[in-house]
TrEMBL record:
The keyword Isomerase applies. The keyword Coiled coil does not apply. It is found in: Peroxisome. Signal peptide: none annotated. SUPFAM superfamilies: ClpP/crotonase (SSF52096). This is Enoyl-CoA hydratase/isomerase family protein. It comes from Nocardioides luti. Keywords: Isomerase, Peroxisome. GO terms for molecular function: delta(3)-delta(2)-enoyl-CoA isomerase activity. InterPro entries: ClpP/crotonase-like_dom_sf (IPR029045), ECH/Chromodomain_protein (IPR051053), Enoyl-CoA_hydra/iso (IPR001753).
Length: 261
């Protein structure tokens, strides 16, 4: 199993469980997490979902070895939901989503915070949006949601620099709500999740709907723009160099790319 699911006090905790891969999302984990969100949305006994990771990582983003296989293996078989189906489930999720960032978060492990209703982060955790270092475009409507969440210039830095952001900086930006000592992270996130979960589900859903409905058109348009840019860049010279370098265990060298890349 790549996902642990536990219920307590109307809070469903989803724990990403590929610790050997820093909880990177392969097709199996995308499918399992999407299914879990869809099930939680329909379950009247669930008021809040709390998402965290097992081990040193929150999530290392999309599994780059699998991404490399997707671009090079004609026989690669995608999952039922995949990345886009997982995003569909996030966008549609009608109940509070609380994230507890326990460790490293890269790619979707960082941009998922655009969909979090509350986000808590370990003081030792770090985040990175590595799109330019992979030669690709943003994802998960982050080009729309992150400027709303942290302001334009912070979003530019996050999305264009591929730099690590520590917990204090993430809190200062507004990317997360609270920073906790590692041992306090889950108890603190759970305590706040249970405060919400004690309220009527119908009211929680109504509040979230009225807050997120004005954003839906913007999210959909951003995903369309990002998908088009990603499709254009994926498999291109910069992306091939980045993925080859990752597979070979070295830093990518973009200096020899054709002009414009």
């Amino acid at each position: 199993m790549t996902l642990q699911i536990a219920d307590e006090h109307r809070v469903r905790t989803l724990t990403l469980d590929r610790p050997e891969a820093l909880n990177a999302f392969n097709e199996e984990l995308y499918d399992a997490t999407a299914e879990a969100l869809l099930a939680a949305a329909e379950d009247p006994a669930v008021a809040v979902v709390l998402l965290t990771g097992n081990g040193r990582g929150f999530s290392a983003g999309t599994d780059l070895l699998e991404m490399h296989a997707r671009t090079t293996d004609p026989a690669f078989v995608p999952g039922k939901h995949g990345f886009q189906g997982f995003l569909d489930a996030l966008v549609a999720f009608p109940k509070p989503l609380v994230c507890a960032v326990n460790g490293l978060g890269l790619g979707i492990g960082a941009t998922i915070l655009g969909f979090a209703d509350l986000a808590f982060m370990s003081a030792t955790a770090r985040l990175k949006c590595p799109f330019t270092s992979l030669g690709v475009a943003p994802e998960a409507a982050s080009s729309y949601l992150l400027p709303l969440l942290v302001g334009r210039q912070n979003a530019v830095w996050l999305l264009q620099s591929s730099a690590w952001v520590d917990a204090a900086t993430a809190r200062e930006m507004g990317l997360v709500w609270q920073v906790c000592e590692p041992d306090d992270l889950l108890p603190t996130a759970r305590r706040h999740a249970e405060v919400l979960a004690a309220k009527p589900v119908s009211s929680l859903v109504a509040v979230k709907r009225t807050m997120t409905e004005p954003l839906r058109a913007g999210i959909a348009a951003a995903r369309e723009r990002e998908n088009a840019a990603f499709a254009e860049l994926m498999g291109g010279p910069a992306n091939r160099e980045a993925l080859t370098a990752f597979a070979e265990g070295r830093e990518p060298d973009f200096t020899a790319l054709p002009p414009g890349w």
